[in-house]
Amino acid sequence: MSLQQINSFAEFQQFEGAELGVSEYHTITQEQINKFADATLDHQWIHLDQERAKAETPFGNTIAHGYLTVSLLPYLWGQIVAIGNLKMQVNYGIEELRFNQAVTVNSQVRLRAKLISLKNLRGIAKAQLEVNMEIKDQPKPAFTGIITFLYHFNS
């Protein structure tokens, strides 16, 4: 699916109830996991110690932090939709987030997004998106949830 270009509330509203698209795949590397561990001070061995993870976990390798996968939302969302004519975009919330499957190192993930609702809050567009982070060649997604963004379009 190609990148959707949206420049106004009215253009965005046309997609309500529809799948907006799917991002490209992104490979989760050990270097990315290590940097995320340093940034968040979460150095649990299941993320960092590959030999121990291979020997002691059911995953057979290190796994990405769940919140690392969530942190990829803006990057992958930007591959699905290009929102133009904006003063500002704000992350507003995440609801019903469920981590369904661990993402092992070197897995490829992508985002699938559907616009479930769009509301006009006194000139601010409140977009609620159903999101699924898919793992290549896996039947279960890494996570599912509903994210909310606020878009302040220029007049």
TrEMBL record:
<feature type="domain" description="MaoC-like">
    <location>
        <begin position="13"/>
        <end position="125"/>
    </location>
</feature>
<dbReference type="InterPro" id="IPR002539">
    <property type="entry name" value="MaoC-like_dom"/>
</dbReference>
<dbReference type="Pfam" id="PF01575">
    <property type="entry name" value="MaoC_dehydratas"/>
</dbReference>
<dbReference type="InterPro" id="IPR029069">
    <property type="entry name" value="HotDog_dom_sf"/>
</dbReference>
<dbReference type="InterPro" id="IPR039375">
    <property type="entry name" value="NodN-like"/>
</dbReference>
<protein>
    <submittedName>
        <fullName>MaoC family dehydratase</fullName>
    </submittedName>
</protein>
